[in-house]
Amino acid sequence: IIQRDPQSKQRRYEFVKGPIFANVILADEINRTPPKTQAALLQAMQEREVTVTGRTYKLEEPFFVLATQNPIEQEGTYPLPEAALDRFMFMIYIDYPTVKEEHQIVKQTTTKKKAAVERVLTRDDMVLFQEIVRMAPVSDAVIAYGIRLARATRPNDLLATMMVKKYLKWGASPRAGQFMTLGAKARALIKGRVSPSFDDVKLVSRLVLRHRIIPNFNAEADGISIEALLDDLVEEVPLPK
Fold it and tell me: Where are the domains of the chain?
């Protein structure tokens, strides 16, 4: 913004930090943001920094981004490119609420009573938990299984299943193996275990791979969904010996 010095009467530019300079970011309906905004968010997620008029500003840790997309109404949207989608660790489908959940939603949002918000974690707590996850030991076999699942999504790879070769145009990048390992570590710790197992990798694999594989025309013509391809992948890819 332009500021005017009351004494010198001179005008000068002053940088004011926007909402991206936060620890937790919620990008609501991200596919409705223009490509320029998406590109800026991509830099922040990858580099943990923001560049404005040639000057770079570091973002504080932790930096955690959540984004939503409405899968029904696509008019006036800007689909995220694969490079941007690849920066997100998980893709989670949220279905309709249960009867009990919907009853609670309606009940809580149609009264004058305001919800009490209490802090359950500090910034330092989040940074510590992230460090603990990275410190958790993991066997080479578990890492190898995640890599196998990622490589099996690539149609030209030797590990690719028959369905992948027929119905996928593009598979997951190496970042998928990284996120499956980190996700498996986090799940193991949440469950009270020190080290992740094959089952941990298998359970997070759908969340990691769902937005990283691109079906081809054959999949659309034959009505093959991404979920069906993931079912086949988990079933067909063997565990490391």
Answer: 1-95, 136-241
